[in-house]
Amino acid sequence: MTTAATLSGAHLGLFMALAPLTLGLIIYLVAYVAKRGEGSIVPPLGQSFACAKCGKRNVREHMVPAKFEGAVAWYCDHCAGDITSRAS
């Protein structure tokens, strides 16, 4: 004679109570493993400009503008000293 395996009401209730928590932890762990190698996403601090002479990139606040026939060229601090000394 074979006995069928049955779940009692207490065991079924415990399973139903823990199933959403277990499923949520599995989804969280899969997402964590998938995203951990990507690094952090950091928004850029501001628009950067390249020096018209040497090509060094920097943010706008650290560049010196120079107007030439209506166009604006941006220079780094080092190259701006050369440009202003030649202009005078």
What portion of the residues fall into strands of 2 or more residues? 15-25%
CATH-assigned fold name of the domain at 48-87: Wheat Germ Agglutinin (Isolectin 2), domain 1
The portion of residues assigned to helices is 40-55%
Main sheet record = 2 strands, antiparallel
- Write down the oligomeric state: single chain
The rounded distance between the terminal residues' Cα atoms is 109 Å
Q: State the CATH architecture of the domain at 48-87.
A: 2-Layer Sandwich
- The CATH class name of the domain at 48-87 reads Alpha Beta
Instruction: Write down the secondary-structure element order.
Output: HEEEEH
Number of strands: 4
**Broad shape:** rod-shaped
Class computed from helices, strands and strand pairing: alpha+beta
Description:
The chain has helices spanning 9-35, 77-87; strands at 48-50, 57-59, 64-68, 71-75. 43% of the residues lie in helices and 18% in strands. The chain has a domain at 48-87: Wheat Germ Agglutinin (Isolectin 2), domain 1. A hairpin with a 6-residue loop joins strand 1 and strand 2 (57-59). The strands form 2 sheets. It has a two-stranded antiparallel sheet. A two-stranded antiparallel ribbon has the order 3-4. It is built from 2 helices and 4 strands. It is rod-shaped, with a radius of gyration of 32 Å.
